[in-house]
Amino acid sequence: MVLVVGGAGYVGSMLVRELLNKGYAVRTFDKFYYGDRGIEDIKDRIEVIQGDMRNIDSSIFEDINAVINVGGLSNDPTAEYNPKANYEMNVVATKNLAKLSKKRGIKRFIFASSCSIYDLGFGGEDVVQNEEVKVNPKATYSRSKYDAERILLKMVDEDFSPVILRKGTIFGFSYRMRYDLVVNTFVKDALTKGKITIFRGGEMWRP
């Protein structure tokens, strides 16, 4: 069984469906800050636990073989609005999830980090970014993701192999839709207004 933390969110609600389609049993753990609409039509096919990732009981790891953490605060505005909550969710909760997973003998732990840690969104060179490139996390959100990465990497051993995904810009349909993501905003504005708005002279870019 796979535990998806943040399973009712923009990414999580789609991930849960993909796991079900692949034949996996799924348990979700989510605070439902934005409600449970993202998974309301599949609740009879999954285990649903409502709770705060900052206060996780070890019982949720029962019968779990893999953990995927797509929970926490997910953008700069929310992180800047509440830096304390951002750190507690994105760093401390991730660390605790990993420690409990390792204690339970769960080898596979997947963490959703972000391309934001490169912080090359304005100007810069057109260079492929990979694991060898020096990161430059400047904002509260990106620093929290990088801090969590470093914690996870220090926990690596032959019995615990975390995977870190530095996701590029996510876009497209979700059962818990977000319109604060740039590509989704472009599409929405193109359909509803007949135009899109480009800021900073078109110099900004995202992977």
From TrEMBL:
<dbReference type="InterPro" id="IPR036291">
    <property type="entry name" value="NAD(P)-bd_dom_sf"/>
</dbReference>
<feature type="domain" description="NAD-dependent epimerase/dehydratase">
    <location>
        <begin position="2"/>
        <end position="207"/>
    </location>
</feature>
<protein>
    <submittedName>
        <fullName>SDR family oxidoreductase</fullName>
    </submittedName>
</protein>
<dbReference type="InterPro" id="IPR050177">
    <property type="entry name" value="Lipid_A_modif_metabolic_enz"/>
</dbReference>
<dbReference type="Pfam" id="PF01370">
    <property type="entry name" value="Epimerase"/>
</dbReference>
<dbReference type="InterPro" id="IPR001509">
    <property type="entry name" value="Epimerase_deHydtase"/>
</dbReference>
